[in-house]
Here is the input.
Amino acid sequence: MKPYRAIVCFASLTASLPFSASAQAISYNTGSLGVAANGVNTAGVVLDQPGALAAKGDFSSSYSGAPGNNTTVPFQAALNPAANAPFTIEFWARPTATDGDDAPIGNRLATGDRSGWVFFQRDETTGWNFRMYNGVGSTVGWDITGGTATLNAWSHVVVTWNGTTPSLYVNGVFASSTNNPAFNGVYRPNANNESFYVGALIGGASPTNGSIDEVAYYPTALSPAQILNHYNMASSSIIGAYSAMVQADGALLYLQQNPPIASITAMSPSPVIKFTGILSKSENLKDWTDVVTTSPYTVPASEPKTLFYKSHR
Here is the structure.
């Protein structure tokens, strides 16, 4: 008979809530791009705020609207496909104010010939605006607007791009795919390795007032049924149900905006731990040692048979 092995995992915060990202704390990517697409928060971003999901343990990040506050995901080629390649961008936002120019999500190259895309939160009744740039000066190729951007309430905002036309969905419902007639319907993807921004654009331009949660990017155009399922799943009290759906639908980037997590994904023949943040181990719950590794981590057979693991910032 093999000796019994006890492995216990749990998440651990290194500071009491709310957590101010004064040390550029990380927004952890749990999409398939892994740690390469982690987001770095500026000092003004406040983490671990109440999130959009009904299940316990969900958090969001809060942005004050001050210039310069944002979360930056470094350039990833997979998040910037060719113009004819489909994709979907999804997020939840709870705006607390607006000047009509707040940009919760975007990768727009703003200097010279503009390229890429950006969301804008307009006034409450005008709703959400999505722009795609055509690579000629500051001109816009696509400009679609719809839904409502209600203050002090969570909105689920999604845009799908099928390679030719963007479609906007707000709170699970199709809102618009009608272009502003002033623009030509041409899209040029991010042309200068620009980053992916949350809370404000490059340099902190067009900052957001409010909280943002569950940011996801997919390399496909999600169907209307999938989008509605995501919206409805947010009200589930089952922990992990929403995130499982996002990951199953193929998210490359998924910033849950939650504290570090650790879980055991396999026990035999060797325990495997999946985690975000920094993994630490202990034999006595008093003395902790950080494990220099990446997720998932397979516990070596040489480790003690009783061992505790936690993840932290």
Q: What stands out?
A: The chain has two domains: 6-11+261-312, 29-255. The first helix runs from residue 224 to 233. The two ends are 39 Å apart (CA to CA).
